[in-house]
Amino acid sequence: MPNLSIPALFREQVSKLRIRPMIYSRRDRHWRPLTWLQIETRVNAAASGLIQLGIHPGDRVAIIGQSCVEWVIADLAALSTGAVDVAISETASFDDILWILNDSQAKLAFVGDPDLLETLSSAREHLPHLTTCIAFHDAVTALDHVTLKGMSLLRLENLGASADVSDEIDRRIGDIAPDDLMTLIYTSGTTGTPKGVMISHRNMIENCQACLRAIPIQTDDVLLSFLPLSHSFERMAGYYMPSIFGGATIYYSNGLDRLMKDLEEVRPTLMTGVPRLYERIYAQAQRLRNRSHPAKRIIMDIARNVGSRVTRKQQKGQAASQLLEAQYTWVRDRVFNGLHEKLGGRVRLFVSGGAPLAVEIAEFFFSAGILILEGYGLTETTPVVSVNRPNAYQFGSVGRPLDNVRVRISDDGEILVKAPSVMMGYWNQEAETRSILDAEGWLKTGDIGTVDREGFLRITDRKKDLYKDTGGRYVAPQKIEGLLRLDPFIEQVCLVGDGRPYCVALIVPHWESLEEWAHDKRIPFEGRQDLREDTAIRGLIQRVVQRVNQKLAKHEMVKAFELLEMPFTTEDALLTPSLKVRRNRVIVRYAPQIHDLYMGERQSSRETSDPHYAS
Predict the structure, then answer these.
(1) Distance CA 581, CA 36 (A)
(2) pTM for the complete prediction?
């Protein structure tokens, strides 16, 4: 590999695409484009400003903010100075943010949230290395109330534009070697203290190029990004790979709550997401089906059956008959056209990662003419290990390994990975690095899986997530949680049972669906508390649990459950930035409810085998 780096490759794309839009970001309720040349001008000015502030190659520069144009400018500017950027989730706990800033010894931080900027200012004595904060657009007003050294990103760019250091920036970019440290991305910390994953320019470039060979992207593609850029999956798959390597245009959404409106406005051709997104859309479609006229429900079920038959033939490498293809085209264009339009009407592909995607959901989207390609990876692999391809996919699998990735299964079923995208190691944690990365470069993923005869990788569970009950039997909680979430009345689930006699579940219902159901059944209620205690509501959820239990081994069955009023969120640190449940934290937060479930102290925690509830 020649001496390439992310900022050098960005400049190459600028020379080709120049006045084409690179990024759209929402300002004052309108989408505003920035061309490749405009972004380069701002990046060079910001990089020059960082040099004026004393940032040297190898210094750590933190970025704490939502995905936006400013995040991209901060990233490319820091990398253009030869610095190492430290991506931190804005929704991380303040203790974790302090830990990461101090562990990385970040000298400067870009900050997008005004409250966080003020909090950092009040904690100055606990941040001995941090000297300066740069405020993104939304945090500028907080600068008047902070005591630490700070300025707006616009002022940083003006500072840099007034100094002619373009030759110095060119020299620094030219001096970056492929194996130089590019970024620190801290693991989300589902357990323990976050660890800084060291990723080099080579790691990122190799992964982007391999992903582009697996899923081709053109300059006329439009990608809608809603996951945080602090997360390794979105950083690679929703930023570097499609844009700097593929030349596509990116729109940055304001988050999951706004996403459906953004889909209709942006009309993307591509989008990366996590199963939680597709589960939400699927659940909404199921609710609409359940409220439809019986005749329409029959038509929708027939349409789904047609789509399932077509995709199952494709997955076997077989061609569907002309009649079946004609039926599929009809149901896609007539029955599911409303859903397709809700998603913008131009979607070519969805890519899913971060957690298992249910086969039923993938088949449902295919019936609507949208192929979801599920992939797999870790922060430690920068991140993609494997992914399904448009012309070679298997629902229920995470695809074949990328063409520069080797995968093998250890004797105990753990997935091992060797690739040029495997991390350099953990920052300042040699012992932790040696425990996961051997001398030959094989990384222990901590995931359990299998590889079939066609080379498709399947994940069965997290090695650390597997637990044993008091009978010594293993339980894979993600599988059971996924089955429960398929029901439109269930929003989130956390299974509990490690070292206990049986499994219980903390369930966050889809309250809107339950309220509609209660209204249709003429069940009086006044808020979620009444719904949670209502025997009819509990009976409904009980029947859902009972149906899932019929698909499980006896020791996997959910014997009791508790309904929670409030969902798990990233703000309360019960979800990771990629929307995975932090099981250990949930168990601590809801310890009294879990205790009651096992001790049988509440009438509402009866076992699901009770025939009264099974009826």
Answers:
(1) 37
(2) 0.82
